[in-house]
Amino acid sequence: MRAEHTLRVGDGAFLVDPFEPAYLRVHRQGGFASRVEAALRELADCHACPRNCACNRLKGETRACHTGRFAIVSSAFPHFGEEDCLRGWRGSGTIFFSLCNLRCAFCQNWDISQKLEGKECGPREIAGLMLLLQERGCHNINFVTPEHVAPQVVEAIAEAVPLGLRVPIVYNTSAYDAISSLRLLDGLVDIYMPDFKFWKPETALRLARATDYPERAREAIREMHRQVGPLKLGPDGLARRGVLVRHLVCPGRPTRRRQSSSGWPASCRPTRTST
Question: For the whole model, what pTM was predicted?
Answer without folding.
Answer: 0.90
